[in-house]
Design goal:
This protein is an alpha/beta fold. The chain has helices at residues 9-26, 34-46, 60-71, 87-90, 124-127, 131-136, 171-174, 188-199, 212-219, 229-243, 263-279, 287-298, 306-310, 315-325; strands at 50-53, 75-79, 91-96, 101-106, 113-117, 138-141, 144-147, 153-158, 179-182, 257-259, 303-304. A hairpin with a 2-residue loop joins β6 and β7. The protein is globular and about 70 Å long.
């Protein structure tokens, strides 16, 4: 692949070094969960938001908190509960009796890194309170809009929908998340390391290895990462196939897909693939970068029919079948 003359290799190497340093700090606390750590760094680099799903106890909250410590960014955590109100997240106007007027009281969303813990424990009205913040990087309280700090990332955790007391996220909100990462239980060896790390010795302190300005500077290289036209077409074909699989020779998937991925998926898949390339120390995107990141970008954007659910099919099954079928450039 041709290199981009506007992107010095030294900038890629330096960005990669900084990202690996962040990852190394996080691994002082987190054992395993390699995919989660990579997806957090990709979301950070690509200016996206991350939705993490897994059963309780898999260190979802700990991973996000440790990331904030390694970045030296301001961090807030909101535990979503059924009695939470939108004002508890974005803030509200408070009457000042001395001056006889209303003044804004900014909510916890005004931070660099917001952890929306167990986001599907709250009703849709509260979940939607994050929509403007996630998309526009601003919040409107009363008649005034307030910009959020930069960088601003929402990392939300949720328990599987089938668990008691949870609410599915609205489609409009899930589409705002760049990726949805699924966590599984650790292996036996990994769990042995967890036991030793948290029962015998306290984890070492996390060192700050990045600044807010370094993150913003690193984001400037993504548009310069080379993405060949054939790779871009590959991304478009993948997304289009989730909407109308028949033209691509996957007629059997048509009755299983209710709605395919939105155009936002194409944008996010392109950006995430570029960030994946930087994370691997390259200045160009390969088809493998696209295949690696595609399930996390698409799994929450492909909605299945009742027929597919009756056959116990998941969006991951559909996406994997599409990736296996489409020719790789």
């Amino acid at each position: 692949m041709s290199s981009n003359p506007n992107l010095p290799s030294g900038r890629i190497a330096e960005t990669n070094r900084l990202l690996q340093a962040v990852k190394q700090e996080i691994t002082k606390v987190i054992v395993g969960q390699e995919t989660l750590l990579d997806r957090m760094l990709i979301a950070l680099l690509a200016n996206g938001h991350l939705l993490v799903e897994g059963v309780p106890g898999l260190a979802k909250t700990t991973a996000v908190k440790t990331l904030a410590d390694a970045l030296g960014l301001t961090f807030r955590r909101v535990s979503f509960t059924p009695d939470l109100l939108p004002a508890d997240i974005i803030g509200t106007l408070v009457f000042n009796p001395r001056e006889g007027n209303f003044s804004p009281r900014l909510g916890p969303v005004f931070t660099h890194l917001l952890l929306a813990d167990e986001i599907n424990r709250a009703p849709a009205k509260v979940q939607s309170a994050l929509l403007e913040a996630m998309q526009e990087r601003q919040v409107t309280i009363g008649d005034t809009s307030y910009p959020l700090p930069a960088p601003f990332l929402v990392m939300a955790t949720q328990n599987p929908i089938e668990q008691e007391g949870t609410y599915p996220l609205p489609e409009a909100q899930t589409d705002r998340f760049m990726m949805k990462c699924l966590l599984d239980y650790p292996t036996k060896d990994q769990e042995r390391q967890i036991l030793q790390r948290f029962t015998e010795n306290a984890p070492p302190p996390i060192q700050k290895v990045l600044t807010a300005q370094q993150i913003l500077d690193a984001r400037e290289i993504l548009p310069l990462v080379y993405c060949d036209e054939k790779v871009a077409d590959y991304i478009l074909d993948i997304v289009a196939c989730t909407r109308k699989p028949a033209p691509y020779g996957l007629d059997r998937l048509t009755p299983q897909i209710a709605y395919g991925a939105s155009p936002r998926a194409s944008i996010f898949l392109n950006l995430a693939a570029r960030a994946e390339a930087v994370l691997r120390g390259r200045h160009y995107v390969t088809p493998q970068d696209v295949k690696t990141i595609a399930p996390d970008v698409l799994r929450h954007r492909v909605l299945l029919t009742y027929e597919a659910e009756a056959e116990e099919r998941t969006s991951d099954h559909i996406i994997r079948e599409i990736l296996d079928h489409l020719p790789v450039p």
